[in-house]
Structure formats: structure tokens, C-alpha cells
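Appendix B, record 7
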Amino acid sequence: MGWTNTLKDIARAGLRVERTRLEPLVTLRATAGLALSGCVALWLFGGTAAAGAAYGALLGGIAVFQRSWRPDPVLPVISALTLGVTSFLSYLTGGYLPLFLLLVALWTFLGGMAWSLGANAGSLGTTNAAVMLVTVTLPATITQSLGQAALMAAGGLVQAALVVLFPIRRWGRHRDALADALAAEADYARRLRQDPTAPFTPGPFAQARDAASLSARQLRRRPAQLHGARSLAERIRPVLASLADPALTGGHQDGPARDRAHELLAAAAAIPDTAADAIRRGRPAELPPQALAAIDIPPGGPVLTGAAEQAATRLRALLRDVAETARGDRSDTNGHSDSNGHSDSNGHSDSNGHSGDSGDSGRAGENRRPDGGDTLVRPPLREEAREAVRTVRGQLHHDYPVFRHAVRATVVVVLGDLIGRALPFGHGYWVPLVALLIMRPGFSHTYGRAAARLGGTVVGLIIAGGIVQLAQPGPLACGILSVICGGLILLFMYTGYAPVQVAASAYTVFTLAMAGVGLDQSVPARLVLTLIGGCLAMLAYALYPSWETPGLRTRLADWIKADLVYAATVVRHYADPTRQSARETREAVLSARTSVLAWRNAVALAEKEPVRQRGLSRTAEAGAEQALAEVAHITMLLEAHLPEPGSPHLPSAAALATALQQSAEDADRAVRDKLVPTWEPVRTALNAWNGEDPGDEADRMLHRAGPLLLTALDELSTALEYAAPPMTTTGAPPRAEPAARS
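C-alpha cells (predicted):
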């Protein structure tokens, strides 16, 4: 896609207003904190002090709206403390331009690198650098500077205090994350009724897992409804796929057996859906009687047989556990299994050795509670700080997007500050401020925010400027109007950057008017300075980009390797079932899930980049996704029927597991080297099965799965032959014909 079309699409996306659920009560509380901080400061110290206090309260209120799993008061406190320090440092160095620019450059670079720790850390780092540009223009003496910094910090602390005194929907984000995962499970069950090979959507489960990482204090206060449901949902996932798809279980495509499977899938949709609604609202679930009746064994006895009946039995037990959790009936927290071997909400193993989230213990930076199968304990603050330093240090490379963003932001802020000082408008800090708030590590985010910033600024300045010009409000009225605009900023936080910017521009006009700044100094100048800052941000990305497109091949290689390691891990446990099977399988599932989400995010970003040479054509991307989804689906069917610990070993599985592991390494290298992977180790292992007579049900399932896996892998190789530029088959000379383009 060329630059012209790309910019049009991104501008439309940046100006789009998202229809999403608003948070009026949280907004009202944060707006009250903004009003309290500003009014008290205005009454005691005057308009300039009130502007600083209101600014701190506004940033503290914005911190409340960040999508974080930490307790609500934490982010406002962090925002307040860092805001006070940043403000005071900018005041101290403001009179010495070289020293000030050096400090701003250092702070901006560190704030840019903070994006490697996540969106919350990146936003906080960007805000702190922006504060240095704004506050340096306000007080004149060190005493005033110290007082102004204290007022800014106090504004954020007021927001934290209000969160503690007037809590709204405690654990709301955690409830939503868990409810979204259960709702996604219900949707998966519904789709399986229509398409037995429907793909699983991992995003909500990854989000729920992030939400389950809690501090020790949070663990003691967590509602009972948030305990165990995620582990159950994770264990239901492969069972649903096995029940719906008869490819490995040997079930019938039609007749009473399929009707019975559809009844169970319908119940598997209704019960998690009801549980999700109950968890979201924080009240016991009222489960539909027909769904509860459907999971009982029919009066005439089981209709399904073999592996299908085994899957149905496990699904019935898991759905009963979900129902009990949603109703609040499960008071047993000691992890005892029921008579069928199925675990309680603490995730202890069922009769097949599955243990919900037991594999999470191997994840870096996470500890396990011995009594919490779905509980991830957040490490101590000191360990988190060390991990953060290691993460940031690992991003210090010129090819990494976060590092390039930090360099871009640093150069633009310094250059923008010098340009702003040279212009005759005054308020020159507005140029680097606008550029910094626009810039993000991704191309589409940066350019989309630039369009939204410019459009929102124009609308907001016109509205607020018209009100000030016509009504001539005094300091108190301007303070009230600024509070209203601050509330609108918070209310529109989740609707997109454009409406937020409309309110923010009006907030700026009213706040400066409260401090005595005339309209002729605030409106025309800011329009011009906003345009200059936005152009600087976009020009910086064009000259020093960090495209996602060239990295698609690497992301695909990671996904291929993770999927094949997942398959190898599951097959290996058919060869040698152990107590560690569930743990190792869970770790492989998490690795594969991380890889597929990284791939999808990279593809979504690459589609919006004006890069002609994609490295992979859209045809190759689509074909590879379909093939790898099939590999994951087949592996998930095998995962649903892992043999119990102590079951007879399957020698045929050992060779296939080794072949899959070897193929994972070979394919990873081949794709990175622009070669089409071949699957000779897998083919050889399957050829060795010729003439073997499968023994028990597990062996028969494995013999059905092996050829299906090889077929999916061959489809992957076929898809990669249509990459652009052409990929070469491993061990073969380069292809002479051009690759097909999408």
C-alpha cells in the first residue's frame, strides 16, 4: 500500500470514535478529585497554583483509567510521586538551557524505553517527560517551584485517596477479564456445533491469565468467584474440540452420537455464558435448567462410545465445577478431587493427570501458591525491578522498535524545544509537547494520533475559544469549565484519541484562562504549534522508521517452532505418561499462545504500513495461518486424551515426538533463512508405523493424528512457496518462476 492510501486509512482510523462502555461513576469520582484539587489550590494560592494542582489531579485521574491489574490506588500514587519529582527537576534546570535540554533528552529516552515494559509504563514515562516541558514555564523561584511540584503531586494523591475512600466496582477489571474468557469459551462451543474444526480464540484467555497474576495482598482479598474458573475454562478447551471433531475419536459424523455431542456443546455454551454474566456482575449465577439437564447421562445410558464418551464424561464434570463456582457453592479450598478424579477450583489433577494451570510454575518471574491452581503470585517489588531493568537492557539495540522510538522521541523533543523557543508565538514548549504525546513505537499509532490530535485540537480550541470570547468568564468560572472538560477527558478515555483531544484542548484553554493567560495567546498560537509538532512527529517516523513488516518472517518462524514443540510435547507424553505431563503440556500451550498472538499483532500492524516488500505475501500469510491452526487443532485433540500417569508406553509415539522436535528446530532455521521447510523426520517416523497394529484407544488416536499432522505441515510448506520474494525448498536450487502475489 502506498503512502497516500495508507495516510488516508490511518487518518480515518485516528478520527474514528469507538462505541464502547463508558465508566460514568469512575469519571464522576475522578472529576470530583480534579475539582477538589483545583478549587482548594485556587482559594489558597491563586490561579497559577490551581493550574498545577489541577494538572496533577488530571494525570492522576487518567492513571485510574489505565488498564492495569494492580490495585486502583497504585497508579495514581506512582503518577503523583513521579510527577512531583519530574516537575521540580524541570524547575531547577529551567534557567540553564543546555542543562535543561540534557535532562529532558535523558528523561525522554528513558520514558521511550519504558514502552518495553508495557503500555502503562510507556504512557507514564511519556507523561513525565511532557510534564518537564510544561511546568518549567510556570514558577520563578526555587521555593515556588518546590511548592508547585508539591501541589502537582498532591493532585495525584487526592485521586488515590478518593479511590480508597469511594471504591467503585472492586475487582471490576479482573471480573471482566475472567468473564470475557468464559464468554469466549461459550462462543467456541457454539462455533464448534457449526464447524467441528473451528479455530480457538486465545486472546481472552491470555488476558485472563494476566489478570490472575496477583500480589499476596490481593490474594487474601480476592472474591471467591475469581478462584478456579479460569483453570476450569482452560481444561474445557481441548475437551470441547475433541467432542466436536470425530477425526481422532472415531465418532460418527451424524446420527444419535452427533446429536448427543451437539447437546453437550450447547450446554457448554450456556453454562459458561451464564457464569460469565454472574462473575461480571458479582452475583450468584442462575443457570438454565435445560443446560444442567443436558449434561446428565441420558436415561437410556451413554450414547457416545470410546474416546468420545471419555471426553463427554470429562466435560460433564468440568461443567458441573463451573456451575458450582458461578453459584458460589464451592467452599472446598483444599484441592480434594471428587469421586471421578476431577479436581476442584484449585486445579489439582483429574483422572487423566491434567491440572489446569500447573504448567504456569515454570514461567519466568512468577511464583506458585501451593493451594491455587489458577493463581499466579506476582513477584516482590525488588524482583520486578530487576526484571524490568533486564527487559529494558535487552531492548537496547538499534533494530528494536522500542529503542528506535526512544531515539526518535529524544531527537524530536530537543529539536522541537529549540524550534518553539525560536518562534515568535511564545509557549514554545507546545511543539515538543505535542510531538511527544503523539509519538508511539508503532507507525499506525503515531500517524493515527497525529490526525486525531490535529482534528481534536482544532475543534476543542474553537469551542473553548468561542466560549471565552463571548462569555468572558472569570477565574472561578474558568475553573469550573476546566473541571467539566477534565471530566470529559476521563469519560472519553476508551472512545478514541480524537474525542479525548477535543476535551483536552478545551481544558487547556480554560486552565490557562484561569491562570490569567489571554485568549489571543492560547488559541491561534496553539493551532500553529500543534501543526508543527505533529509534522515533526510524523517526519521523524518517516526518516527513522521501525517497520513491523520485515519482522513477519521471524514472527512466523517463532510460531511454527512453538506449535511443533507443543505437538512434540503432547506426543511425547503418549510415549511416556508421567506426573509432569500436564505441567509440560501447559508450558507448551502458553508458549504457542504467546507466539500466535505476537504473529497476529504483527500482521495487523504490518497491514497498515506503507512498505511494498512484505517478505511474505498475503497468500502465504493466510495459507500458513490455516496450516498452523490445523496443527494446533490436531494437537489439542490429542491433548484432550493424554494417557493417565502409569499407562502403558507407546513406543511409536517416541519416534514421532523426536521427529517433531527436530522438525521444529529445522523449520525455525529454514523460515528465517527464506527456505521452505521440509518434514523428512516426521515422514520417516510415520513410514516406520507401516504394518503396526494399533493397540488401545490412545494408540489408535495417535495413528490417526500422525498422518493428519503431516498433511497440515505439507500444506504449510506449500503456502510458503508463495512468499515474496520466492522461498527456496530446503536442499533444492532456487525457484526460477516468480512467486504468486496476493
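Remarks on this record: The longest strand covers residues 213-214. Residues 331-373, 731-742 have pLDDT under 50 and may be disordered.
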